Amino acid sequence: MKIIDWYILKRFLVTFLFTLLILIPIAIAIDVSEKIDNFLEHTNLGLDEILNDYYLNFIIYYTNTFMPLALFIAVILFTSKLSNNTEIIAITNAKVSFTRFLYPYFVGATIVTILSLVMNHYVVPNSTKIRKGFEKEYISNSKQKNELKYVSDFSLQLTDSTYIFIRNFNTANNVGYDFNSETYDGLELKSKLSADNIRFNVKDSVFTLTGWRKRLVYKDRDSIFSGNKIDTVFNFTPRDLIYKSAFAQEMPSDELVKFINISKKRGVKNLNAYLVELYKRTSLPIASYILTIIAVALAFRKRRGGTGVNLAVGVGIMFLYVFFMKIGEVLGSVAGVNSLSYVWIPNIMFGLVAIYLYFHARK
User: Fold this and answer.
1) Are 294 and 317 in contact (CB under 8 A)?
2) Residue 142 pLDDT exceeds 60
């Protein structure tokens, strides 16, 4: 059986890579047609920069995105070919069970899963950061560039007893207005620092307060100090003021987990967009096993209509999976819900389908 295992595994990986090599150039061609005008608008933008900063990272991102689809299509294609060539009949006549027949498929799915996990958790976030920076500089329109620029009426818990409030903040020039920092002992206010303007100095990570006033609250009296300008340090940066899922895509998983934990301590109310991104990085690679079982079960027996029917049914199932996955991501990002359960709902649903098809194929 080892010869057949190697034969199936080799066909598995070759067809998988071949499918990726078909999908990626199509994605690149569509993207080039959409963005060629943006590239030509910038006379200082060279071909090397476009290829290295954008399309290299574009390929990394979409290779990882297309992995489940490529895996699913690859398994259906070459398993249908095995069935049409009556090779599977010869294998079953040799008293090889369907479970044993799945062994090389699971080896291949494990290779793809491990590769996808490494890419999802570490490679793709770093790659996305470079690609997003390029898009922001050369492709995004002014509306998109200003989307994350302004923050208003923001509050943040820095420690168990310290809270900050900012009326307006411009993340482009790191300048804010109407700043307050309050320190409490239980429910009692102990001190309050206010400023008309606040500026973050990136070079030394120091905040400059202009038109500042500080109030110290004692049992029988208050002390008030004021001045024109003062430099101080706070346990946050302007990036902490913006909570967008786009930032989650640019963080490696260890950095993302650290960010989520710090944000929880600071009292940020809704971090579900970040949790969805974190959980998705594991759930999608694990789906390789589920999709492999479904694909093999569909293509295991010879059908009237051949590979075309299997491929049509398989692609339909794949797009249903993507549809439910996107719904789960949207619902999981809503405040107050269990993000983990919503992210894993597609895997649970199609896992049940895979179990049904597995037992059906065994017959």
Assistant:
1) yes
2) no
| pLDDT tens digits along 63-96 | 988 888 889 888 888 888 887 777 777 777 777 7
Closest by CA to 249, choosing from 238, 262, 259, 236, is: 259
The 10s digit of each residue's pLDDT in 241-300 is 765 556 788 889 998 898 888 777 766 666 888 899 899 999 999 999 999 999 888 887
Q: Are 66 and 329 in contact (CB under 8 A)?
A: no
- Range(s) of the domain holding residue 179: 149-241
Is pLDDT of 147 > 60? no
Instruction: Enter the pTM of the model.
Output: 0.74
Task: Give yes or no: residues 134 and 36 share one domain.
Answer: yes
- pLDDT of 198 reads 93
| Residues 122 and 59 placed together within one structural domain of the fold | yes
HEC letters along the chain: CHHHHHHHHHHHHHHHHHHHHHHHHHHHHHHHHHHHHHHHHCCCCCHHHHHHHHHHHHHHHHHHHHHHHHHHHHHHHHHHHHHHCCHHHHHHHCCCCHHHHCHHHHHHHHHHHHHHHHHHHHHHHHHHHHHHHHHHHHCCCHHHHCCCCEEEEEEEECCCCEEEEEEEEECCCCEEEEEEEEEEECCEEEEEEEEEEEEEECCCCEEEEEEEEEEEECCCCEEEEEEEEEEECCCCCHHHHCCCHHHHCCCCHHHHHHHHHHHHHCCCCCCHHHHHHHHHHHHHHHHHHHHHHHHHHHHCCCCCCCHHHHHHHHHHHHHHHHHHHHHHHHHHCCCCCCHHHHHHHHHHHHHHHHHHHHHHHHC
Domain check: are 9 and 122 in the same one? Answer: yes
Tell me what pLDDT residue 243 has.
56
Structure tokens at 188: 């009692």
Residue-level pLDDT at 265: 72
Does residue 184 surpass a pLDDT of 60? yes
Lowest-confidence segment of 43-47, 51-55, 333-337 by average pLDDT? 333-337
Q: How many domains does the chain have?
A: 2
Same domain, residue pair 81 and 206 = no
* 137 and 156 belong to one structural domain: no
